[in-house]
Backbone:
């Protein structure tokens, strides 16, 4: 699953800020949208959506649904939502747990659909069940997803320590998004974990070494 989808799941599941932490086109678009910089958001979402990125398609759907920097259009919003969901559905059928988690987010928050928390739980649980064996085998993308689900209590009982443990495994395995999330958590002392300057510096150094 692309790094963009990992970033989208972070902002929708956890509401984490992007500025200074998540340097990514979709992250920048989400930040612009949430800050009311609608033309900037549109200019970033549009090319990504045209390249087939479902997260950007959902972003455009949100903009057209709410008339955010564009003329409100229910039909256009539904069109973009449908395109994004179709791609995620296809990926889910092909066994991608992150696609199930993405669909869970949409139903959980009522984005493009009527809010349906029961259906969202089913998608999250399927994502967890599919990702767990991959995580145990050392797949750092699956470890990252398991960490997010434990940390948010989506599809599984909330366990912030298990979440941090899986995110740490993902980060140590080279998952950049997990590293950035851990840096943010230990810098601010959030997500139920205490502030830890030493751990924050550790993850900052790991990220610097990637560049």
Residues:
């Amino acid at each position: 699953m692309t790094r963009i989808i990992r970033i989208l799941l972070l902002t929708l599941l956890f509401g984490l800020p992007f500025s200074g932490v998540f340097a990514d086109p979709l992250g920048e678009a989400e930040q612009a949208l949430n800050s009311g910089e609608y033309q900037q958001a549109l200019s970033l979402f549009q090319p990504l959506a045209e390249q087939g990125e479902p997260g950007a398609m959902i972003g455009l759907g949100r903009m057209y649904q709410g008339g955010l920097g564009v003329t409100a259009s229910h039909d256009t919003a539904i069109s973009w939502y449908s395109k994004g969901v179709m791609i995620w559905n296809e990926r889910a059928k092909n066994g991608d747990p992150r696609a199930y988690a993405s669909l869970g987010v949409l139903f959980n928050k009522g984005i493009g659909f009527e809010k349906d928390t029961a259906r969202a739980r089913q998608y999250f649980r399927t994502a967890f069940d599919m990702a767990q064996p991959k995580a145990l085998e050392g797949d750092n993308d699956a470890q990252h997803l398991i960490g997010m689900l434990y940390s948010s209590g989506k599809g599984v009982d909330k366990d912030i320590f298990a979440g941090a443990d899986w995110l740490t495994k993902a980060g140590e395995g080279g998952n950049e998004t997990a590293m950035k999330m851990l840096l943010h958590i230990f810098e601010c002392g959030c997500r139920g974990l205490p502030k830890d300057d030493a751990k924050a510096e550790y993850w900052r150094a790991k990220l610097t070494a990637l560049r």
Q: What stands out?
A: The two ends are 21 Å apart (CA to CA). Residues 15-23 have pLDDT under 50 and may be disordered. The CA atoms of residues 45 and 136 lie 35 Å apart.
